[in-house]
Records
---
Amino acid sequence: MRRSAKIHATPKIDIHGVAARARVSIATVSRTINHVPTVDSQLAERVWKAVAELGYFPNTQARALVSGKSKLLGLIVSEITNPFFPELIQEFEQVAVEHGYEILIGSTNYETTKMELCARRMLERKVDGVAIMTFGIEDFLLDRFAVDNIPVVFIDPAPSRPLSSVLAVDYRAGINEGVQHLAVLGHRKIGFISGPLRLRSAESRKAAFLNCLKSAGIKVDLSWMIEGDHTLDGGRDAMQQILALKHLPTAIMCSNDMTAIGVQHALFEAGFKVPEDFSLIGFDDIHLAEYTIPPLTTVRMSCKDLAQNAVGALLSNLDPANIKPGATNKISTRLIVRQTTGLPKDALSDLNPKRRRR
């Protein structure tokens, strides 16, 4: 008879195994992996060495039950299809992980019902804090997070609530640099394609543009002020509306880069060149902006700055000693000049001897 082969079961790797390998108590292992600062440094070193050697992965759900903290940060964004938001998610996750947190992502597509569903998921998963990057948040949702004492950080001003912080984007600084850049080049006919004006951020960017035109002494032509939707198709459609007008601007500023890229495509389809026929400026400075043809001049709003300030604000409000209700974190913007801006068409015509003799 053939002897049956012995089956060697792989020993279960758990907190008991880590404690035995490190020659410490289970309590010491628990305190170490939960980053309790009072653990002796030599004991903690032995625990982490054992964790690495055994390939142990702590049970985060069990830790959450014991500590009362999920070690989860929620992140609600407007739409995944806009490259700005995946870039923001990547930066946010990196910063969160550095602080020992995982992230839970929700996308609203600018719809109130989806925003409510995202908020419900965050509440059900007992997130420790939520960063709301939808560029427009319903007040009743902020109230719901406040009831559960969940810290919230969001973009754009909103009524102050307990454990809430604001990321205040300095739209005017970057847009003013853009307007001044165009003015120095000689542009006095400048149009603007906004985002959906129901969003505070889109309204703020449009208001900043109008104020900057006024400061530069440039007349506003309302026929060149078009409301878009922050998408490629929206930018294309808006530029087609402008091209149908009798009198055309020489430069266009856009509320975001996706709109600007759509504008570029509309101009290409109509046989125009950028910047020879129209100068163009976007907003956000998504990674793709460097790779359009020609590369897009744009106003940079750093995803890294947004992520670092958002996570910092949430963690600050999780510590009772550091809570600063209604704290505001300023996010700077600045113009990044590439190749979609130049002199207005025919700006040098007066220097042409043949044209002067006519």
---
Amino acid sequence: MPLAERLQSVLVAAAAAAGLGAGLAWPIGPAAGHVVLPALLVMLTAVFAQMDASRVRAVHRARPVVAASLALNFVLTPALAWALGAGLLGGSPDLRVGLLLLLVTPCTDWYLVFTAMARGHTGIAAALLPLNLVLQLLLLPVYVLLLGGQAAMVDGATLAESVLLVLVVPLAAASLLRWAAARYQGAARRDRAVVAPASRLVLPLLYVAVFAMFAWQARTVVAHGAELLVLLAPLALFFVIAPLAAVAASRLLRLPADQRVTLTMTATARNSPIALALAVAAFPDRPLIAVALVVGPLVELPVLALLSQLVRAPAPRQGSPVGTGRSPG
């Protein structure tokens, strides 16, 4: 795992602190506000440019893992997000919506890294990515409108437009970029010219967006600092319950060790960049929602690093495909 990825939670925190300091020291808030959404849109395009949709065909060979993943990510987790928000954040509607947006979006990028670290089946993990992306694209408006309740206070048309902007547009741009590169340069050169540079852009763009977000909303963060600390309790509960539920499902289904790791990681890792982009687009007048979403990775990434050691599969024997990028079989 590259050093930049190992230090991601530290660098996100550093970007937030730097943005907060800059926003309090200088009047750069309005200018920084114009940077957040463009940076997130370019970042998501770079994330999607790395995804190979053809991998989704491999999921039919791992039906138990796929079924368990769908049940955990799109049934149990939304119910848990609603319960945690209603039970612990009832007095703060913006934090409730921020928590909901974070928890109902399963990860489509960095969980592959932690799956590999824990010797999980990265072939199945990669095959799940397009499926998770399409389902969260379709279900996000439903979750926000049904589970957000009065706290969401956004009409369906506005939410649909925001999903179109932050998910469909970057996905279409990335797909067009991949197709054009493969069409005129071949798959190998496409990977060198598009996929590799895109992978190097994601983290810097995330740090830029986080810096700009905190510079833009520095005074909001200072005014609501105590409220943001309240988020730690529901986040901690989620990051305990989600992996335990995945391990229980793995035992029930008698999954092999590498598939157990994959299920645990996909059920635990969340897609904070997409949730943050949606919050900025759909709730521009409620900045605390977006600010709350930056707290998520500060908790999540250390949890995933620890989890990758706790659920690590045994080292594969000579010739075993476990933990590789090969298709499941």
---
Amino acid sequence: MNGMNEWMPISQVSQKVNIPPETVRRYARQYGSYLAMKRGEKKAYLIHESSLDTIKRIRTLLEQGHQHGQVKLLLRNEYEANVHIEKEEAERDQHLSKQMMKEVHMLVDQNKKLMKLMTEMHERMNVYEEILEQQQQLAVTSEQVDETMKEQRDYERKRDEYLLKTMNEMQEKRKESANPREKNKLFTKLFKLS
């Protein structure tokens, strides 16, 4: 929602929570420290929409027979519990962010190693090409060329297997870090720890 709709006058709050405006005003005076409020034009109360549930809760507690002091105590306890829960969630989010950053750094390192390996392989391939050119210039027998080609194919096959294995491992790591189930497992581990 935009900023204009977040703050409402008492009359609008009254309609939304189905409580008479006079009662909402009384709640604003008595329980204002538990409501997000400010003064608008002509010093009229404006109440933030995030406080609608609190107003309903006040009404329910009073209807259940709680006295003014008891309602304040219950609201304070609920507020403190919510603050504690929000703090725990923030700590869990921070821990998850740290773990995700570790995984990202690990993937970056793997990518660097793979790039280095590919560069080395490219350099070796250049050497093999030079060797092949030299062999052709010297008119090496076909057996020697076949043997060199076999070695090159073996090398290329091993290189391709290694590259494929490395790329599969990287994809698995990426899937794990993007997989909501894995994140849920992480949250489950975090909750079991607390």
